[in-house]
Structure formats: structure tokens, C-alpha cells
Amino acid sequence: MYIGIYGASGFGKEVMPLVRQQYPNLRKENFVFIDDGSELNDLNQYRVISYNEFLSSSEQDKGVVIAIANSAVRELLSVKLEQDNIPQLSIQALNTVVLDDVVIGEGSILCSFTCLTSNIKIGKGFHANIYSYVAHDCIIGDYVTFAPSVKCNGNVHIEDHAYIGTGAVIKQGTPKRPITIGKGAVIGMGAVVTKSVPAGVTVFGNPAKPLGRQRND
């Protein structure tokens, strides 16, 4: 198998070792970085190639991991991979904890020390950085991003393309009144979210308060 990590940047460098762990029987030469704008030829002793070069390679069995923080770019690349019939791989660190009745869409990346407890539904292209957790009865949409150490407590609904910043804490909701983070909302670093956040709004602080509407997608 020939595996490309799309994104030769900081997050890509962190994801590559997780991919290698998940495919321990492959040689190092079977892994490359894909970056259409990079001037690098190699990164951490892996080749850096363009997407067209990856497509034109002679290997028949290919897969791609999208390691790009921008959720809109992730979605565009996911569409491109689907059009080109290239499978999008999901990656989990060896020490990730996933308990009962957890459903995750394709293209997820669960970094080291992440934890998904039970009765959780997660959409496509989810990124959970190191030391993040999702507790029971949460529903997470497509292309949601967790920065490091996000604490998402139970009965929380997070809609598509939301970004949850480093160290943010989302209070537990209830089955009848879940805490909802709207589509495209941004939760700032260290924020403590005690009530629902409307779509497209950025919040910061403890308790988290809005700065105004920032995104309209």
C-alpha cells in the first residue's frame, strides 16, 4: 500500500508517526507527504510530492490521510479524493480509548491520549488532537476540529465545521437540553462553554462570551 499524508506542515509531521504505527508492516518508502505548495523535497526523511505525482505513481493500492487543520480545505480535499477513487484513511493512535457504541465517519484522526467514551456519533473528517475527550451521548458533525486538550462533556451536539480551541471545556448538557455548538462556531483557547453557541459565532473566556459573528458557512 502507498499512503500519502496530505499536508507537510506541523500537524502533518505529528500525524505521520501515527500512520506508521497503524501500518507497521509497510516500509518507510511506502509513506509520503502530499503538498501542492511546498518547496521541500523531503521532510523528516519522507518524500514530499504533489497530489498529481501521487495520483500518477505506479502503485495500485493507495490511501490518503488529510492532516490539515482548516476544515473547509479538508472538505474540498475529501471531495477530490472521492472523485479520484482514492480511499481516505482514518487514523487512531495506539493509546486512543474508544468504548461502547461509538460511530465515526471516514477520515478521522484521533491523536495520542484521546478518549471517546460511549454512545457517540461523529461525522466525517473529525480531528481530535492530543489529550482530547468526548463523553457519552454526544453528536458531532462533519469536519469538526478539536485542538489539544479539549474536554467535551456528555450530551453535547457540535455541528459541522466547528473549531474547538486548545484547553476548551464544554459543559455537560442533558438529554432533553443538550449543549449545542452551531455550524462554523469557534470556541477560543481555554474557554469554558456553559450554554449553547449559535452558528458562526466565536466565543472566549470563562464563562465563554461571544465576540460576534465571524463565519457564515
UniProtKB/TrEMBL annotation:
What SUPFAM superfamilies does the database record attribute to this sequence? Answer: Trimeric LpxA-like enzymes
Superkingdom of the organism of origin: Bacteria
Active site residues of this protein: H136
> Which InterPro entries does the entry link to?
AcTrfase_PglD-like, PglD_N, Trans_hexapeptide_repeat, Trimer_LpxA-like_sf
What CDD domains does its record include? LbH_AT_putative (cd03360)
Which Pfam families does the record match to this protein?
Answer: PglD_N
Quote the Gene3D superfamilies the UniProt record gives. Answer: 3.40.50.20, Hexapeptide repeat proteins (2.160.10.10)
Q: Which residues form the PglD N-terminal domain?
A: 3-78
Site described as Increases basicity of active site His, positions?
D137
Q: Which family does it belong to?
A: Belongs to the transferase hexapeptide repeat family.
Name the chain's protein: PglD N-terminal domain-containing protein
Organismal lineage: Bacteria, Pseudomonadati, Pseudomonadota, Gammaproteobacteria, Pasteurellales
